Structures are given as C-alpha cells and as structure tokens.
C-alpha cells in the first residue's frame, strides 16, 4: 500500500507539477525570444516617434501616429508579454503588477535614446534627453 | 551672598538645559523605529523586484 502511495505521488508530480515548472521556464524563454525578435521593429517605431514608453512600463502609440495593423499587433503582443513578466515577478515578490511595471518604466526611461518619447510621472510625454543631460540629472538627485 | 546668586542662576540654567536634552532624547527613541521600518521594507522589496527585472530584461536591454 505504501509503495502504491509513493508511486501515485511520483506519478502525480510527473504528470502535473513537473510540466508546470518546465512550462514556466519555457514560457519565460519563449517570451524572451519573442521580445528579442520584436526589438528591432520597436526601436524603429520609437525612433520615428510613432510610439513611446509610458510611465507604467508599457509601449503606447503616440496621438498622431499612423500605425499599420501589423505595428498595432506588435505593440499589443509586446505589452501582453511584458505584463506576463511583471505579473510573475509581482507574484514572486508579493507585490503588484502595477508596481513592477512602474519600476521597469524607470529603467526603460533611463536607457531611452535621445529623442524617444517617454511619459513622465505627471502623465506628460517628453522626448528623452541626451545621455550627458541624463547624467547631470542623476548627479543633481 | 551677591557672589552666590549668579552661580546659582547659572546652575539652574544648566540644569534646565540638561532636563530639556533628556526629554528630546527620549522622544527620538520612541519615534525612530515606527517611522523607519516601513521605508526599509519598501526599499527592500523594490530592490528585489529591480533585481528580478534586471535578471529577465538585462540581456534584452543590452541587445
């Protein structure tokens, strides 16, 4: 009977628990791969001023931007993947998706290239300054 | 008697300062743990989140 129980538990782990752990790792790897593939196109759209990085850690289309359907789908897919990553980290650290997104936005904004649109904490969109100016801002803080 | 009066006055003033200093020290000790703890916890969580974000996005940001 004990053997049967042990075998049952092992079988359960193999059928349910192990695939879940593996699928989480697979998901992360897949998301990373998809993000890497999307990055060049996203950079082009950012450079053109069609999209920007908002204060919540997501991509957002600019008001007057004329985006093709494929570009809209690209933004949607990217934001969906970002949200999945933020949610996983929030769950792990006992925080919220919004808080993780805000912290990610800070890094994105400090890495933004000159002229790319970023949304300030007040909700206003501004163009990212030159790297030298960013350094000065940090020193002032 | 005239000589003793200024000395007594000075001693009283010094005692007054001493007493005030004691009261201030007490109030600081009472307040500090209540105010600082939550800040530390928040910072700690933010640091851990930032580390997880860097672990995931680090390679992508470097591309």
Structure, described:
Chain A is elongated and about 70 Å long. Chain A has 141 residues and is an alpha+beta fold. In chain A, helix 1 crosses helix 2 and helix 2 (69-93) packs across helix 3. Chain A has a 4-stranded mixed β-sheet with strand order 2-1-3-4. Chain A has helices at residues 2-47, 69-93, 97-111, 131-140; strands at 51-53, 59-61, 117-119, 125-127. Chain B is mostly helical and 63 residues long. The longest helix of chain B has 59 residues, at 4-62. Chains A and B meet through helix 1, helix 2 and helix 3 of A and helix 1 of B.
Strand content of chain B: under 5%
**Major β-sheet of chain A, in short?**
4 strands, mixed
Q: Figure out the total of helices of chain B.
A: 1
**Assembly category:** heterodimer
Strand content of chain A: 5-15%
Give the tally of structural domains of chain A.
Answer: 1
Q: Biggest interface between protein chains, with counts per chain?
A: A-B, 18 and 14 residues
Order of helices and strands of chain A: HEEHHEEH
Report the C-alpha radius of gyration of chain A, rounded.
20 Å
Any key phrases for this structure?
heterodimer, A: 141 residues, alpha+beta, B: 63 residues
Summarize the structure.
The complex is a heterodimer of chains A (about 140) and B (about 60). Chain A is α+β, with helices and mostly antiparallel strands and about 140 residues long.
Strand-helix topology:
The complex is a heterodimer of chains A (141) and B (63).
Chain A: H1 2-47, E1 51-53, E2 59-61, H2 69-93, H3 97-111, E3 117-119, E4 125-127, H4 131-140
Parallel strand pairs in A: 1-3
Antiparallel strand pairs in A: 1-2, 3-4
Helix pairs in contact in A: 1-2, 2-3
Chain B: H1 4-62
